[in-house]
Amino acid sequence: MAKHTICLIEGDGIGHEVIRAAKHVLEGMQVTGELEFSWLTAEAGWELFERTGNSIPDETLDIVKSAKATLFGAATSPSKKVAGFKGAIRHMRRALDLYANVRPAKHHPVPGSRAGVDLIVVRENTEGLYVEQERSYMNGELAVAEAVITKRASQRIGDYAAKLALSRPRKLVHVAHKANVLPVTQGLFLNTAQAAASVYDVTVKDIIIDNCAMQLVARPEQFDVIVTTNLFGDIISDLTAGLVGGLGIAASGNIGEQYAVFESVHGSAPDIAGQGIANPTATVLAAALMLHHIGEHQAADRLEKAVDIALEHGPRTRDLGGTASTMDFAATLLEAYKTA
Ligand code: NAI
Ligand code: MG
Question: Rounded to two decimals, what is the model's pTM?
Answer without folding.
Answer: 0.96
